[in-house]
Write a structure and sequence with these properties.
Length: 388
């Protein structure tokens, strides 16, 4: 596991290092010899899922978001989940969701907006609890916004709960927070492949590549050609001709990846996080010109930065806010267009030119808050994993 960005709360899992920021990818020694299958990045905390279904967390724990008692600068196992085989997780501003192999969700951390789905508004839950109101439904995916949560059921239904100040629950109403999962009725009978949540906006992607967005749209982060919030899921008509395969959300911006390897971004651009060599906001999806010609296979949005991975060129690019080292460019400057992340990236085609101990075959990239991660292996087991 390589990590870079803000380390001030221990959210990179590097232990008690002197630096507050890490400006170039560094190996997280804790996971040597362990197989990581998922990473959730919160604002100031991180959760790691191992292949054996165990969960480790590190970083800020002021609201119980680590699922154990104290703040930790090194990953520590969430022992309350010992009896569970966890298969996916997600982190919000200060809360965490974990999904087990039976399709049940466990939640912990900040609950004052109902984002834990536990039918209460308790400020702080430090031990993971099962969301019992979803016990009859098998959940396939979870996604945390800052103060809201969404879940995709294996049957295709989408559920949402938590803060609804910006209509980010997609229920046709605005305002009052909701502490128990509600089905997003307007999306029934549509088969979805992925869900994603940003600061206060949400997305759902169909198997055919249609993209629906709802919630806060102050900066155009829904990509629907205006800046009005949406209380119902709205189809992004401008992406209908593209075969979208993945959606990632930052605090106020969105990036989508197409089957052909193209990247479109929209929403807040004040730090360059859209990659268009400007700090303008974009209310419509706009292709990142400097990534054209490359087949990007993975994207990840942090709070105000974006990562894109192009295995054929052995490179990872980053753009946006850089003040905490989250771009991995050896500097703390913001970047308005894609800049290379300084790392030992390798591809199958060039593997023989590298010392296998030094070259990293990237399996998956992650970003959130002001931190970034790349999960890699040092030998090319087979083909690089394409897409997220």
């Amino acid at each position: 596991m390589l990590c870079w960005g803000n380390a001030s709360y221990g959210q990179l899992g590097l232990g008690g290092i002197d630096e507050e920021i890490v400006v170039v990818p560094r190996k997280c020694e804790y996971f040597n010899g362990k197989r990581v299958s998922d990473v959730g990045c919160g604002r100031r905390h991180t959760a790691f899922l191992l292949d054996d279904g165990t969960v480790y967390t590190c970083g800020c724990n002021d609201l119980g978001q680590l699922g154990h008692e104290k703040s930790r600068k090194k990953p520590e196992q969430v022992v309350a989940l010992d009896a569970q085989i966890i298969v996916a997780l997600s982190c919000g501003e200060s809360h965490t969701l974990a999904l087990n192999d039976k399709g049940q969700i466990f939640s912990w951390g900040l609950g004052s907006d109902g984002q834990l789905g536990l039918n209460n508004f308790e400020e702080c839950i430090r031990v993971p609890r099962n969301i019992k109101s979803l016990s009859d439904v098998q959940i396939a995916q979870v996604a945390c916004g800052y103060w809201h949560s969404i879940a995709l059921a294996r049957g295709g239904q989408i559920f949402s709960w938590g803060q609804n100040r910006y209509s980010q629950l997609g229920l046709g109403i605005t305002g009052q927070s909701i502490s128990t999962p509600q089905m997003v009725q307007s999306l029934q009978a549509i088969p979805f492949s992925q869900i994603s949540a940003g600061g206060a906006h949400s997305f759902a992607l169909t198997f055919s590549g249609a993209v629906f967005g709802w919630g806060c749209n102050k900066f155009g982060q829904l990509g629907v050609n205006d800046t009005n919030d949406r209380c119902f899921p709205t189809l992004l008509k401008s992406l209908r001709s593209q075969r979208v395969i993945y959606v990632s959300c930052g605090e106020d911006h969105t990036a989508v990846l197409t089957k052909e390897g193209g990247v479109f971004t929209f929403g807040a651009g004040g730090y360059g996080q859209l990659g268009h060599n400007s700090t303008n906001h974009e209310i419509n999806p706009r292709k990142v010109f400097e990534l054209m010609g490359n087949v990007v296979t993975q994207i990840a949005c942090g709070r105000q930065h974006t990562l894109a991975f192009t295995p054929a060129c052995e490179k990872m690019d980053s753009f946006g806010l850089g003040g905490n080292g989250q771009l991995g460019t050896r500097s703390t400057c913001n970047r308005k267009s894609p800049a290379p992340v300084k790392g030992p990236w390798a591809t199958s085609s060039t593997a023989e030119e590298y010392d296998s101990e030094q070259s990293c075959f990237v399996r998956r990239i992650y970003a959130g808050g002001d931190q970034s991660f790349a999960h890699y292996c040092t030998t090319n087991v087979s083909m690089l994993i394409r897409g997220s």
